[in-house]
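Hi U.,

Before I forget, here's the chain from the pilot set. I'm dumping it here mostly so it's searchable later in email.
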Amino acid sequence: MAPEETRTRLIAQIASLLNEGTMPADARAAGLTLIGWLARRMPGEEASRDGVEEMCRRAAVLGCGPRRVGGRRST
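Structure:
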């Protein structure tokens, strides 16, 4: 799958999760922020890892580890 197709699919999956309505307000805001960031990224531009480590630490403290939405995790 091409990177642009992957990006578009990810935006759609996040939007689908947001439409479920069972998400805490902070998580919803984070999802909307991520969608906005993904939508602004230029084709071919590498993804930023800014804030990923901090969010993983926060998720661990809250007891809600990272959730795979779909696809394969890159290593």
